[in-house]
């Protein structure tokens, strides 16, 4: 069997992984301990991110004709790829956070929604909260005025009952006072 025939399934597997991907981030993983690599893979897996160590030539072939072909110039030295199909900023966010504790992990570049970012761009992208966090903040902002209105109305209702109760308690006492001089 020729070498090309052996490599074709690997290239096809990478190409299948990048179909419909929102983002790809390339990293240099040299120097990571087994424990660090295991922890990194666990965090990425939990976020639904595909993480693979692949040969650069295989990735170049798989990236041909896609937005990710822009990463060819960064494919030097050992490379691992993190692929996200759901959350575009998740790979950058997780890898940048992990790189703070594991200094051996170096980000190379990434493509997020068709735009190429270098290390500084990925670092800035990593500061963007996840889609779920942004939606929950938006929902909280939308609910806040309604919640505050409900609290104010509840306080008004409670205060409205208190004067009525006080007036009801004072009314029999006032009648007793009026009756006393009539005797």
From TrEMBL:
<dbReference type="InterPro" id="IPR022973">
    <property type="entry name" value="Ribosomal_uL10_bac"/>
</dbReference>
<feature type="compositionally biased region" description="Low complexity">
    <location>
        <begin position="162"/>
        <end position="175"/>
    </location>
</feature>
<dbReference type="InterPro" id="IPR002363">
    <property type="entry name" value="Ribosomal_uL10_CS_bac"/>
</dbReference>
<dbReference type="InterPro" id="IPR047865">
    <property type="entry name" value="Ribosomal_uL10_bac_type"/>
</dbReference>
<dbReference type="InterPro" id="IPR043141">
    <property type="entry name" value="Ribosomal_uL10-like_sf"/>
</dbReference>
<comment type="subunit">
    <text>Part of the ribosomal stalk of the 50S ribosomal subunit. The N-terminus interacts with L11 and the large rRNA to form the base of the stalk. The C-terminus forms an elongated spine to which L12 dimers bind in a sequential fashion forming a multimeric L10(L12)X complex.</text>
</comment>
<comment type="function">
    <text>Forms part of the ribosomal stalk, playing a central role in the interaction of the ribosome with GTP-bound translation factors.</text>
</comment>
<keyword id="KW-0687">Ribonucleoprotein</keyword>
<feature type="region of interest" description="Disordered">
    <location>
        <begin position="161"/>
        <end position="183"/>
    </location>
</feature>
<keyword id="KW-0699">rRNA-binding</keyword>
<keyword id="KW-0694">RNA-binding</keyword>
<keyword id="KW-0689">Ribosomal protein</keyword>
<dbReference type="GO" id="GO:0005840">
    <property type="term" value="C:ribosome"/>
</dbReference>
<protein>
    <recommendedName>
        <fullName>Large ribosomal subunit protein uL10</fullName>
    </recommendedName>
</protein>
<comment type="similarity">
    <text>Belongs to the universal ribosomal protein uL10 family.</text>
</comment>
<dbReference type="InterPro" id="IPR001790">
    <property type="entry name" value="Ribosomal_uL10"/>
</dbReference>
<dbReference type="Pfam" id="PF00466">
    <property type="entry name" value="Ribosomal_L10"/>
</dbReference>
């Amino acid at each position: 069997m020729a070498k090309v025939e052996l490599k074709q399934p690997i290239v096809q597997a990478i190409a299948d992984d990048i179909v419909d991907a929102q983002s790809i981030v390339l990293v240099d993983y040299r120097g990571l301990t087994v424990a660090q690599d295991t922890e990194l893979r666990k965090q990425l897996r939990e976020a639904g991110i595909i993480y693979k160590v692949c040969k650069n030539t295989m990735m170049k072939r798989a990236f041909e004709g896609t937005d990710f072909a822009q990463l060819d110039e960064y494919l030097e030295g050992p490379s691992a790829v993190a692929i996200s199909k759901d959350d575009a900023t998740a790979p950058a966010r997780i890898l940048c956070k992990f790189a703070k504790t594991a200094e051996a992990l170096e980000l190379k570049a990434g493509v997020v929604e068709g735009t190429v970012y270098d290390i500084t761009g990925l670092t800035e992208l990593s500061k963007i909260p996840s889609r779920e966090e942004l939606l929950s903040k938006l929902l909280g902002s939308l609910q806040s005025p309604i919640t505050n209105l409900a609290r104010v109305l509840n306080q008004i209702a409670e205060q409205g009952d208190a004067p009525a109760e006080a007036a009801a308690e004072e009314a029999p006492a006032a009648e007793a006072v009026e009756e006393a001089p009539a005797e």
